[in-house]
Design goal:
The protein is α+β, with helices and mostly antiparallel strands. It is built from 6 helices and 10 strands; from the N terminus they run H-E-H-E-E-E-E-E-E-E-H-H-H-H-E-E. Helix content is about 25%, strand content about 20%. A hairpin with an 8-residue loop joins strand 6 and strand 7.
Amino acid sequence: MPELPEVETTRRGIAPHLIGRNVTGVTLRRPDLRWPIPPEISELLPGQRILDVERRAKYLLLHTKVGSALLHLGMTGVLRVLPPDALVGKHDHVDIALEPTRAEGPRVLRFTDARRFGCLLWQPPGETHELLASLGPEPLTDDFDGDLLWRLSRGRTAAVKLFLMDNAIVVGVGNIYASEALFAAGIDPRKPAGSVSRARYARLAAEVKRILAWAIERGGTTLRDFINPDGAPGYFFRELQVYGREGEPCRICGTPIRQVVLGQRSTFWCPKCQK
């Protein structure tokens, strides 16, 4: 599933083509994705100027004066900006048509999703969609730090990795990047969240910020179906320290990387470097 760096990479890729342009039409080739596509997408979005493209957690919002289109890529979703006559594939479910500009002719924002676990919903102006209402802070902002993790973890017996992946604590730290940040911070992912010290949480928060920021610059991590909006793969996968490396030697100490399932997600760690 695309994680925060992949979604942010998508936002950065499509935003320059969308911001300031009017929507001239919407083509829905099916009435639903994960959930039914609300009528506002077809009835209100055409004729509106896209004022901004925002990422909140793993969601993207196309803001207009009358409301915002809310998108999630699911497991296999891809957004691309294409000429309107681009060949339509089997899994190309939505086209949002954009007016021509001086720099380029007419374009469409095409939403492709083979497994249809993504979504296209609507957020009225001045409201927060229910999917966004209970989310924690963004990890790359000042609202997220070690003190927050330490304070919210007190009394918690769940594994620290599951705690870190809880979107009510902090958004967007998915399976890959949680594993990598815990390795960089030297923390065993199985350790009870409430037993991690304030000092170790300070280091963990710093590593989350560093790794996510670096992954964004590297274009995300390509796993299975994900590619960037320009069709190029992300390159952070070449720098993974533990994720997906069960049995391979740790790049720091040479100890074989281990794997365990936590919360139905594969978790990788070095038993020597992470205590």
